[in-house]
Amino acid sequence: MGTLINRRIRKKVMMQKISIQSTYGERFQHCWGCGPKNEQGLHLKSYPSDDGETCIATVVPDAMYTGGVPHNLFGGMIATLFDCHGTASAAWFAHRQKGLELTEDTVIGRFITAHLEVDFKKPVPMGEEINITSHVEEIGERKVVVAMEMEAAGDIRATAKMVAVGVKDTM
């Protein structure tokens, strides 16, 4: 019952908020995993929690992303989801540290992955809602360290740690 209530709360939060990815500058909106302007992409959306301490993304992957073990998500997609959610989270945490909020007019700073480490705990079942939650471990001048968990069917399926770095608009 608790999981169902948590899912309803997450969906309500996500419906009321602006996704971090939708605030990327025009030239940074074409990522296959999370870019809102990539027609063939996944369109992953990450949202800050109400208190700003965490970010969450929720997705149910299409059946085509099954892995070598039938009915389970393949590891490359797990890493992709962590990659896109992690860089969006890093952008949010750096934005928030500056005392800024996320609004429709925000053009958030863009972060890219410098290092991503994934620990696979249990298979991620297909056809299940996957929730990825992140929190900040460290914020530097250009670097943000983000820790993440991937949950499906009530279990932590994978964890990740990312080092993300801010890039200039001219990259």
Automatic annotation (TrEMBL):
Keywords: Apoptosis, Cell membrane, Cell projection, Cytoplasm, Fatty acid metabolism, Hydrolase, Lipid metabolism, Membrane, Transit peptide
UniProt xrefs under InterPro entries: HotDog_dom_sf (IPR029069), THEM4/THEM5_acyl-CoA_thioest (IPR052365), Thioestr_dom (IPR006683)
Example GO biological process: fatty acid metabolic process
Main location: membrane
EC number(s) reported in the record: 3.1.2.2
Topology in the lipid bilayer: Peripheral membrane protein
SUPFAM superfamilies in alphabetical order: Thioesterase/thiol ester dehydrase-isomerase
Keyword Lipid metabolism found: yes
Ranges where the Thioesterase domain occurs: 72-155
Gene Ontology terms: cellular component: cytoplasm; membrane
Catalytic activity: hexadecanoyl-CoA + H2O = hexadecanoate + CoA + H(+); (9Z)-octadecenoyl-CoA + H2O = (9Z)-octadecenoate + CoA + H(+); (5Z,8Z,11Z,14Z)-eicosatetraenoyl-CoA + H2O = (5Z,8Z,11Z,14Z)-eicosatetraenoate + CoA + H(+); octanoyl-CoA + H2O = octanoate + CoA + H(+)
UniProt-recorded Gene Ontology molecular function terms: hydrolase activity
Domain of life of the source: Bacteria
Localization per record: Cell projection, Ruffle membrane; Cytoplasm; Membrane
Key word Magnesium present: no
Family: Belongs to the THEM4/THEM5 thioesterase family.
Protein name per Swiss-Prot or TrEMBL: Acyl-coenzyme A thioesterase THEM4
